[in-house]
Design goal:
It is built from 14 helices and 2 strands. α1 runs antiparallel to α12 and α13 runs antiparallel to α14. The structure holds cytidine-5'-monophosphate.
Length: 360
């Protein structure tokens, strides 16, 4: 039997799900705080944050992918042989093997099918930029609840691309989800909560969330499809994803600052203080955990983790940002949580009834 991947005896599946729930809440709060705690004139560049996220995530994935390459420990083997076989683990630091590892990794990363990652890469960069628009224009809890609409888009794309079949209760849950998010939106557009420090534009925020839900569903399902339809290592796939993200992440920066030449470099990090870096680091962590959840678990359990994070960030929002609980907000959140729970109810497998014919 195959060993379950684990850390200190706890299956990675559970570690990744719990960490994802905590990371989701932390990110919502930190990102929101980093955007609204300063006046718009002193805001940091979201495009720089997205680029830093991809660079850091890509570098970490590269190191992990590098450390996971297994080479044969045959002293006589030529470099060529070593870089083309994967069998026994070999000593780490022998220079000859390091060079063989680099060649092997290069081959894996620039594989014939690496272009497949360009689609989720572009979608994720758009999504990561949209998240900043949403976090700047909605309060943390409203953003978090509305973002649950991604379960709807994930389901839609799973049916379309992965040919997944949904049970009637799951379709019903999706309907509840839409209603719940609708209730929260009514609350969002009528409340005058104390968190409005800068000019927050709820309409702009909701449009950004809706678009982010679309890209989240499509990118997530596409990544799952690429990952599960091939033998390639998860971390190699992550490196490919980050490489393809670089161009769309750099494009808005060039568009804004291209004419400034080298002096643009200093403007990139203008106002990029502690909270901006904290947001980037938590987002890097989230990217790495999301990839692990898609690999070691599934989208159903990922839904559970995110619904748990609604409650966590909701309570934190009340404590930290003076977020005012209204009846409609609580009602909407409860409907979203019930819908998430209902969607995650696995339909019981039908018992195998032996049909015997009585015709003679
Ligand atoms: O909200 P959602 O679960 O779609 O967010 C996924 C996040 O995880 C995105 O920010 C995306 O950049 C990141 N991600 C990643 N590597 C993957 C899959 C997702 O960094 N392999």
């Amino acid at each position: 039997a195959q060993a379950v991947p684990s850390l200190w005896g706890i299956p990675l599946k559970y570690i990744s799900l719990v960490t994802l729930a905590l990371q989701n809440s932390l990110l919502t709060i930190i990102m929101h705080y980093s955007r609204v705690s300063t006046p718009p004139s002193r805001a940091y560049s979201a495009a720089t944050a997205v680029l830093m996220n991809e660079l850091l995530k890509g570098s970490i994935s590269l190191l992990i992918a590098f450390s996971r390459i297994e080479l044969p420990s045959i002293p006589q083997a030529s470099y060529k042989d070593i870089s083309q076989t994967t069998s026994y683990p070999a000593s780490w630091f022998a220079p000859r093997l390091v060079s063989a590892r680099i060649r092997r990794l290069w081959k894996d990363v620039f594989s014939a099918d690496c272009w497949k990652l360009s689609i989720p890469a572009i979608l994720y960069v758009i999504q990561n930029n949209l998240q900043y628009v949403a976090a700047s224009n909605l309060d943390a809890a409203t953003f978090q609840v509305s973002y649950q609409m991604k379960i709807l888009t994930t389901a839609g794309f799973s049916v379309l691309l992965l040919r997944k079949r949904l049970a009637p209760t799951q379709w019903l849950a999706l309907l509840f989800l839409a209603i719940g998010v609708g209730i929260v939106q009514i609350q969002g557009s009528t409340s005058h909560s104390a968190v409005i420090i800068n000019d927050m534009n709820a309409m702009k925020g909701f449009l950004a969330v809706a678009a982010a839900c679309f890209t989240s569903g499509l990118a997530g399902v596409y990544f799952e499809m690429v990952l599960k339809n091939s033998q390639a290592d998860l971390w190699v796939r992550n490196v490919q994803l980050s490489l393809f993200s670089l161009l769309p992440a750099i494009a808005p920066i060039l568009y804004d600052h291209g004419s400034e030449g080298f002096s643009a470099f200093s403007t990139l990090f203008r106002n990029f203080g502690f909270w901006a870096w904290a947001t980037v680091l938590v987002q890097v962590l989230g990217g790495l955990i999301t990839a692990m959840v898609i690999k070691y678990s599934d989208n159903i359990l990922k839904g559970f983790a995110t619904s748990l994070s609604i409650v966590i960030s909701f309570l934190a929002s009340v404590a930290l940002f003076n977020f005012q609980m209204t009846f409609t907000f609580i009602l909407g959140s409860v409907v979203v949580l019930i819908a998430t729970w209902l969607y995650n109810q696995q339909p019981k497998p039908k018992p195998n009834i032996l049909v015997t014919t009585t015709d003679h």
